[in-house]
Amino acid sequence: xxxxxxxxxxxxxxxxxxxxxxxxxxxxxxxxxxxxxxxxxxxxxxxxxxxxxxxxxxxxxxxxxxxxxxxxxxxxxxxxxxxxxxxxxxxxxxxxxxxxxxxxxxxxxxxxxxxxxxxxxxxxxxxxxxxxxxxxxxxxxxxxxxxxxxxxxxxxxxxxxxxxxxxxxxxxxxxxxxxxxxxxxxxxxxxxxxxxxxxxxxxxxxxxxxxxxxxxxxxxxxxxxxxxxxxxxxxxxxxxxxxxxxxxxxxxxxxxxxxxxxxxxxxxxxxxxxxxxxxxxxxxxxxxxxxxxxxxxxxxxxxxxxxxxxxxxxxxxxxxxxxxxxxxxxxxxxxxxxxxxxxxxxxxxxxxxxxxxxxxxxxxxxxxxxxxxxxxxxxxxxxxxxxxxxxxx
Length: 393
Description:
By secondary structure, the protein is an alpha+beta fold. The chain has nine helices and eleven strands.
């Protein structure tokens, strides 16, 4: 019998993608990758914006905390003395609060003036405090520091804060001006700190007297003058002269508003409602309808608030500061070149002049910033003043 040959085993058919299936798979994979990359890009942008905002507002937050810390130490060193006002003899008939120091806050347009290249607005505050700041620029060397002041770290200083729009040419390192091409000056809103050194304190030089209609210019001369005041020549000259003492510095950039409201504490409100009829404490905790509080504004016989502010600091200060983002400020400056103050700034005369409109003014300012695409942040705190022991006499 003839055997039949056995055929070789047949290979099994191998499954494979068709060209259409491959094209569909590649399209789906590409779509997924695009979506993933978009999500990663948005996440990176969000993280970068958040990091930028944190970094941008960090200086503002640090400046705000430093300002609050120093303001809370404001002192008038008030004492009770004889009051000879209205008497024809040297024999006093009553006692009164007295002080040789000064505390004042209010709209910058009334308390200080804008100087050349420096526009100042919203509010400002000036006071004395034992901060111990001293300089030695007027001495030939610093070797005699201990002989002059020892370790006196609580010496009295004149101090203050205000907002201005100005160039950074005074605050920048000098080598930037020698580069080729030189780095362009940058104008920004800045929170300025006024520091009058202990050896240059001028408040005692003016000998402000009680109970006379002293002109405001003399009352405020100790911080407004060109002699160790905010307009001292050294504050505007980046090079200065040997021995000059600069009394101002930029504490934080991109601060467009500073609002200060003197207020009463809760126990002061209760006492006012019970014992006072000529001043309506029950309407609000604010004690300065026009934001002005001056410890020496008591010569006006028609202003009932004078008897409460005379030679004493307010019990509480509500301090509000508005900061804007540096990236947005730079973009706006590039799109709107020129030396003029940006239009979103609260430079109008009716901004923050009436405490009843405090909320409305803040809302209007926020709307103006949002309208031009500028991110901002509002810092607010109520400072309990260390010497804010509210008394009536």
